[in-house]
């Protein structure tokens, strides 16, 4: 999240601070369970419009990055 805006922005006050350790904890649990983890926070950014959601170009980037990752770990393969 980046400077939430709009009529529901109050719901996101200090959300970034409250959730800052969440990706690391998810990665830790993923390792413990032996499953893959991909932190989308490192791949894309939230919209400047509302600071919460993604813009269309970010969805495209995310889809490509996930597909690349799945191909890298040999879940997907294509020429």
Number-wise, the strands total: 0
Tally of DSSP helical segments = 3
What is the arithmetic mean of pLDDT? 87
Envelope shape: flat
Q: Please indicate the count of domains.
A: 1
List the uncertain runs. Answer: none
Terminal-residue CA separation: 36 Å
Order of helices and strands: HHH
Which secondary-structure class do the elements indicate?
mainly alpha
Into which percentage range does the β-strand content fall?
Answer: under 5%
Radius of gyration: 15 Å
Helix content: 40-55%
Can you describe this structure in just a few lines?
This protein is mainly alpha-helical. The chain has helices at 15-18, 22-33, 56-72.
Description of the structure:
The structure is a single chain. The protein has 3 helices and no strands. The mean pLDDT is 87. The protein has one domain. By secondary structure, the protein is mostly helical. The longest helix is centred in the C-terminal third of the chain and has 17 residues, at 56-72. InterPro entries: SGNH_hydro_sf.
What is the topology?
Elements lengths: L14 H4 L3 H12 L22 H17 L7
Features of the shown structure:
79 residues, mainly alpha
């Amino acid at each position: 999240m980046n400077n939430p805006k709009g009529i529901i922005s109050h719901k996101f006050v200090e959300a970034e601070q409250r959730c800052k350790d969440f990706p690391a904890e998810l990665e830790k649990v993923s390792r413990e369970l032996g499953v893959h983890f991909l932190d989308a926070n490192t791949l894309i950014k939230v919209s400047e419009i509302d600071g919460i959601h993604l813009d269309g170009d970010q969805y495209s980037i995310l889809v490509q990055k996930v597909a690349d990752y799945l191909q890298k770990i040999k879940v997907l393969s294509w020429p």
